[in-house]
Design brief:
424 residues; alpha+beta; UDP-n-acetylglucosamine1-carboxyvinyl-transferase, Chain; 15 helices; 23 strands; globular; binds uridine-diphosphate-N-acetylglucosamine; binds phosphoenolpyruvate; RNA3'P_cycl/enolpyr_Trfase_a/b
Length: 424
Amino acid sequence: MSQLLLVRGGRRLEGEVAIQGAKNSVLPILAATLLAKGPVVLRGCPRLRDVDASVRILRHLGCEAHWEADALAVDTAGLNRCEISDILMREMRSSAIFLGAILARCGRADLSYPGGCELGPRPIDLHLSGLRELGAEIREEGGFLHCRAPRLRGREVVLRMPSVGATENLMLAACGCEGTTVISNAAREPEVVDLQDFLNACGARVFGAGSSSVSIEGGRKLHGCTYRVMPDRIAAATYLCAAASAGGNIYLRGAEERHLATVTAALREAGCAVTADGAGIRAVCRERLRAVGPVQTAPYPGFPTDAQAVLMAALLRSRGATVFEENIFENRYRHVDELIRMGASIRVSGRVAVVTGVERLHGAPVRCTDLRGGAALCVAALAAEGETRVSQICHIDRGYEDLARDLRALGADAERVEDTETDS
Ligand SMILES: CC(=O)N[C@H]1[C@@H](OP(=O)(O)OP(=O)(O)OC[C@H]2O[C@@H](n3ccc(=O)[nH]c3=O)[C@H](O)[C@@H]2O)O[C@H](CO)[C@@H](O)[C@@H]1O
Ligand SMILES: C=C(OP(=O)(O)O)C(=O)O
């Protein structure tokens, strides 16, 4: 039976939570384990639906993976396949990153296109053109990609835009290249740095991640390692926005302020006191916030598109109007209609959404449209009068270990219950 999240709003938040390991970091790292000849132990690995999907792909390829408390142990010695089925590929966006890793390890790969949140068109043309520049022959036929790369050669690859996934895919393929690869106009996201750090912990030589030029010296034999995954900045942003929405005083253990500068700046402008002490972040938020200046999503270090929906939810009851501009994805306002069911006032025109604060929100039956949109419904529900039933939470489970558990630790009234209506 499917489940829904039941949130009874109106409680100030008070409490502490430890931030899970980052989904967007651990997924490319799991693909990268294919390059290591030796066991890898990933500490702080979040237990997510997307991690389960990665484990299924690894096992399908002949690799071994099992949980040891909060660590995921992976041994890719048994790899005996270089193709991934359409069903496995469609489960998440990050399945695409297996392409670079399989090519580097096996010299060939056969797979289809990835799934992931539906946020408008999400092509992988930059991944494919970059891999072709490194020497891969890629034939696209009947929804499948047939890739052959008996010999990959390092060179400069200039990305048309700083795509996170393309940067990561090319980093992995480049580990299997002869010579040095330089990725120019690379994505600068912290998760790219985490991937670099993981690869280097396995004996690779990767430099420059975090800047727009990443160099990879290819051809090195990589060994296993034990590695701790970075904290999830988007989960942290979600909980900061939860406190902003409901009001309260919360502490996020392990959250890294340097990864969250644009989010914390917006929350401070809205009236929250956000402080970091080296071990975590505290947010003290009063009941009603102020609207803030335009929130324009942009590649890191700009405002993250993944935090757009949760910040929007936090500002639904603010005084004044806030303009959002979504510049990364064409269709990332699918949560807006659901928020309107709760009494929000939001007008969308193309890439712009204008949120005018209302005095009250009310509970309603709402449906997750995607991962962060779903989290945003829960953030809004914390400030709504009455009960909100959030259905289709399979989207939320892709990226949050247990959102209801964490919200409860922060003092919210939130629980997972059976969704009897959907199933009847
Ligand atoms: C698993 C993971 O890490 N997902 C993150 C990653 O997604 P993902 O890696 O899919 O996002 P990209 O950075 O690649 O995409 C950003 C933009 O580039 C475009 N594009 C991308 C690749 C390509 O080959 N061609 C192309 O045109 C996309 O359509 C989009 O407009 O970065 C996004 C942007 O920060 C985040 O929202 C996702 O949470
Ligand atoms: C959009 C996201 O994930 P994915 O790229 O895996 O769909 C996200 O993490 O918000």
